[in-house]
Amino acid sequence: MNLSFSRRSLKSLALLLGPGLLIIIFAPLMFRVGAQSTPPTDCPPPSPAAQCATPASQTKKQAWPQGANITVNIDPTYNTEQRNAIVQSFQNWQTAGGSAGNNSGVRFSFTYNSTPPSMTPPAGTYNVQVWNRDSPRDSGYGGDNAVANNGTNAISQEIWINTKTTDPCALAQTAAHEIGHGFGLGDCSDCADGSSVMVEGNDGYNSLNGTYGPTTCDNNTVKSVAQYPATKTVSTSSGGGGTKGSNIQTFDYYECTTYYWVLYNSWDDGRTWQEVDRWEAGCW
Amino acid sequence: MAIHKRAALLLLSVSVTLGSTTLMALQGQNKSKEKKKTAMVLRRQDQTEQTPSEQEVADQLPVADAAAPESTDPDKRAKREKKNKRYDNQSSRRIEDAPYPVNVTWSTHWWQGLSAIPVTQSDIVLVGEITDARAYLSGDRTGIYSEFTVSAGEILKNDASASLYPGSIVTAERFGGAVRFPSGSVQRYTTRNQRMPLVGRQYVLFLKRIGTEQEFSLVTAYELRSGRVVPLDGANTENGEKLPFDDYKGADSSVFLNTVRDAVAQNSSERR
């Protein structure tokens, strides 16, 4: 049997198998996450990064529109340290909104009034109210929130942080978690500490097992559920007298059919089958 | 020499690939020794039974009329006012018409501490048919709730003070609902991972007492449909959220009912 290979066939084979090998070697690294958020002053770093939870199928969720300028009114009963900690969480979400993060392009500005802003703001404006109050639905929750949308995107959010949550670091983590709901994220009870801002507190109102902003996993999920299109910046010239051009954003859209991997289990040796899980395979 | 290096690399890559494939196959063999079988199928989006979208869930809400007049019967009016008051102070915003559609979704951790069959957290567990569903605004118009009329069938867990029997009529309440304004616009208020029971459908309902009469809040429910169980809540969970109720999705109705009966029996023996 002739086992000799031509240089071309070896190259083709390497091209075919190489990517598989790379995936096998680097897969554990690819699915590690890193907490990218900045802790507030004097706060401990978040739990070490852990593996992402397996993403389930993701459908479009109502979230802040891409590039929205959002006014955040923080309850004036918080002291300066607490207030700064909450602001840091919003800023971490804002920092994560770039093309290397979740593409949201959302920006936050802050007020500290005792009167809350409108939860049905004029079209094109967006408000968040952060209360130093127990949740009206259940006073036992550390944090709670309600997001209003107009059928297309989020328009306002009310966040209640339990009055027993007083530690600035815990306040920042609770706020970061509730902000995540405005970006379309749900709670992640199966996520390991440090893997997601959407983990739930495990040690009472001042738990510190969360993060101060979105992780890489969260940013990927936000991109999936909020469906922020990738942005690319194109320089244009307004012409005439050599005036420097402004930057405009263009969005890449494409149409495709979504396919899912559907996992079935049979408990009667294959006579009947039951769908147990489904996740997106891709769009083509 | 270069070719030898490439060949060695290639051999390594083939052996790693074959090794991992064999490992996966062996794992598969181990699994196949159990009774359970697993199959994975690639389906187009339109070929899968979709979990309901947020919009579909919102479309099934009972609707309140924002301009509905109060009852002229003083007794009925007082009862309604008492119920409405339970849902006061839900927001800094009153529910009023807006120049655009408004849908509000609450993200609460309402299922925390609940088991899939929450017998201990329920005063009443019954099989019943929903015969009516209406929504009402809270007294201060910052909240909304839905009220379901249930015709009881089998009573799986009874409450001495309720003493229900098959044929009893009870009402079950749940936060949320839709409100229609005179302008014709409709606003919807929902809770993440909660849905509303539908009129004409049969459910196993887990109810908690909230009033002195036959008034209960709906803890959770399972629909009995074509001999199978469909959890009312949690069927639209995503992003790693897992609710305990999903464990019984697609279970056989009669097996499920026996499981509930056993849980009730165990609960009552523990209470003695």
Mind explaining what this structure looks like?
The complex is a heterodimer of chains A (284) and B (272). Chain A is α/β, with parallel strands linked by helices. Chain A is 23% helix and 21% strand. Chain A is built from 4 helices and 9 strands. In chain A, strands 2-1-3-5-4 form a 5-stranded mixed beta sheet, with helices on one face. In chain A, strands 6-7 form a two-stranded antiparallel ribbon. The longest helix of chain A is centred in the N-terminal third of the chain and has 24 residues. The N terminus of chain A is likely disordered. In chain B, the strands form 2 sheets. In chain B, strands 4-5-6-10-9 form a 5-stranded mixed β-barrel. Chain B is globular and about 90 Å long. About 8% of the residues of chain B have low confidence. The chains are: A alpha/beta (284), B alpha/beta (272).
Q: Topology, pairings included?
A:
The complex is a heterodimer of chains A (284) and B (272).
Chain A lengths: L6 H24 L38 E6 L5 H16 L11 E5 L14 E6 L11 E7 L4 E8 L6 H15 L33 H10 L5 E5 L11 E5 L6 E9 L7 E10 L1
Parallel strand pairs in A: 1-2, 1-3, 3-5
Antiparallel strand pairs in A: 4-5, 6-7, 8-9
Chain B lengths: L1 H31 L4 E8 L9 H6 L3 E3 L8 H12 L17 E5 L16 E14 L6 E14 L11 E7 L1 E4 L5 E6 L10 E8 L5 E11 L2 E4 L21 H19 L1
Parallel strand pairs in B: 2-7, 3-8, 6-10
Antiparallel strand pairs in B: 4-5, 4-9, 5-6, 7-8, 9-10, 10-11
